[in-house]
Design a protein that fits this description.
Layout (H helix, E strand, L loop, with lengths): L1 E4 L5 H13 L8 H10 L8 E6 L2 E15 L2 E13 L8 H15 L4 E5 L2 H4 L5 E2 L5 E2 L9 E5 L10 E4 L2
Parallel strand pairs: 4-5, 7-9
Antiparallel strand pairs: 1-2, 2-3, 3-4, 3-9, 5-8, 6-8
Helix pairs in contact: 1-2
Amino acid sequence: MIIRKETEKEFNQIYDLVKVAFQTAKVSNGKEQDFATELRDSGNYIPELALVAEEDGKLIGHIMLTKTYITTGDSKFEALLIAPISVLLEYRNKGVGSELINESFRLARKMGYTVVVLVGDPAYYHRFGFRPAVNFGIKHIPEIPDEYVMTCELVPDALNGFSGIIDFS
């Protein structure tokens, strides 16, 4: 398996991969593939942080980290949003998702990013250092339960003494 940057010619394949992967996900609204496209089309897309996992020429996983912001008073703190991360059912529980996350974090640190946020399953994401955003003094839209909105510091103490509101737009 190799982890590499996505290419523009793969966007349709990635759309299908995300759609199929989320058909068997624990939680899905059925629109994750469209959300990925919206994020890619936004000004927050970072091509270097949109990765695929490939095995024998087949795309088996995908992750995208895009810019998001945490508002603090009159200023905005730039962070990264993981959305979505996708692994085809037959490749789950084999480390594909972990490899995608670890490589994206390595690249993000190298690019100078210090914080990642996401909405996801705490049972899965805690192993990567994610904790509820509210533990860091970060608020979010009330429609999502606190335990599912999580933050990970790529650099220790990046959020020390911090408070703000996540802007998922």
